Amino acid sequence: MTRFAPDIDRWLNTLGAWALAVLWVLPLAYAVWTAVHPAAYEARFDLFAPLTADNFAKAWNAAPFSRYFLNTFILVTGILACQLVLCTLAAFAFARFRFPGRSALFALVLLQLLVMPDILIVENYRTMRQLGLVDTITAIALPYVASGFAIFLLRQTFMTIPRELDEAARVEGSSYLGLLWRIYIPLAKPTYLAFGLVSVSHHWNNFLWPLIVTNSVNTRPVTVGLSVFSAVDSGIEWATINAATLMTSGPLLIAFLLFQRQFVQSFMRAGIK
Amino acid sequence: MLRREWIYGWLLLLPALVFLFAFTHLPAIATIWHSFHSTPRGRRPARFIGLDNYEKLIGDPVFWKVLGNNAWFALGTIPTSIGIALLMALWVNDRLAGRAAVRMAYFAPTVLPLIAVANIWLFFYTPGFGLFDQITAALFGWPQSNLLGDHTTALGAIIVVTIWKEAGFFMIFYLAALQSIPVSLVEAARVEGAGRWTIFRRIIFPLLMPTTLFVSVNAVINSFRLVDHIFLLTGGGPDNASSLLLFYIYEIAFKYWETGYGATLTVVLLALLSALAIGQFFLFDRRIHYK
């Protein structure tokens, strides 16, 4: 009896874990199923229903998705590039220099983890209007380029790099920026990868602020494009909407499937304080 | 030498701080300032109206409704998603057949845009031929339901979607924490004859407290920040039954263009977030056992 109890326990746990996994994947699987079958099967499950790519073609032609994708691509890479430059410099300053006001300024940086730009939509919209930037991709990006999270994460990584290394480089006549470029940045590569994945998926997925600050096809990212697409009450079939939904999340999902391990590890690393 | 370090430090910080102040700190202060002003309209500029906006707030039934919704939303999403996340992490951290696949299944919703998630679930909730109605009709023979259109179930339907989206994300943090717990500790307890439940309650759970704090602060912030799916699922309706504070701010400021009142509502949101974060920190800090 006692010999078998752990087996039963393990068995039940495996069962529970799998049941939850199926439950978790079901919505996604169902969306995929409807998207690759003719609209007639969207509410009728039939294992032998014919496969089709029509829904994707229909969705692609029904809205300017190529433009939306281009906008999102520009947005996501632009934000990431700015974040990497600005936040690396700031993190380096916090990690390696002593100057008056350092801890107070760092507290102000951390405050952004609580008061995210997502919440300050009213005031940020006012600022964008004053700057004449409403309905530009720049306006979507600006509030996010100085990421408190990135500064915090990079600072933590930089602090673990032994001082002896930069003293050695200083003796050899390296400048501060040379030090950053040749020692700190290469050693922090895993952190950069982690932050890069978090940043790209976050801004690819962002919706509220882009919705507010954009109002034309030329600036809208895919998330806003998708919402415009599916909000139309023009009797677009569910199969088509689901195809559009999968298209907009497709690149991230494919990246996730390919880099699953790195993805999960990067989020883990991002979580460790 | 020392002076040069100062200048270097400030110069390196300058670019990031300019943006940080321009889009986070100054707007936060400006929000407070503008909450005491009327909304500018046409040629009529904003004028100082003191506490009028706050009086309006107190007398605004929709505001109280939305605040109550947000409280229910937080209560509904935070403990459940954290609990499920912990369970997921414990399972996935264990030896388990097909562990990688299970972990992927749990985490996948996190990668999707919330607006896309909403689209998928909108399809499920559709009265008549949505998945829910099909399942309940086939299993129990229930009549057609309108989960999103009924004011008693709309918020609950939104909560379910949020939990589905968030649990996998929180799981990752628990997984990281679980892997940092020394195996020897658990083995020692096992040698002493402690069962799985005792080990979890006495060793693992206390050691996970810092992670729980981190995750719960995140969950609290998210419960005020995540409103994307409301846009597609219910639009805050019916009769504001599923509207949340940030969604209401959006409606007031960008649908009715009452930016003054919108600022006042934002002040409430900021105050709530700060109070909750501070409260949470002190409450949890005492109970956490750091290594």
TrEMBL record, chain A:
Protein location: Cell membrane
Keywords: Cell membrane, Membrane, Transmembrane, Transmembrane helix, Transport
Gene3D superfamilies xref list: MetI-like
GO annotation, biological process: transmembrane transport
Record field: transmembrane: 68-92, 104-122, 134-154, 179-200, 238-259
Tagged with keyword Membrane: yes
InterPro entries for this protein: MetI-like (IPR000515), MetI-like_sf (IPR035906)
Family per similarity comment: Belongs to the binding-protein-dependent transport system permease family.
PANTHER family: ABC TRANSPORTER PERMEASE PROTEIN MG189-RELATED-RELATED, LACTOSE TRANSPORT SYSTEM PERMEASE PROTEIN LACG
Record-given protein name: ABC transporter, permease protein, putative
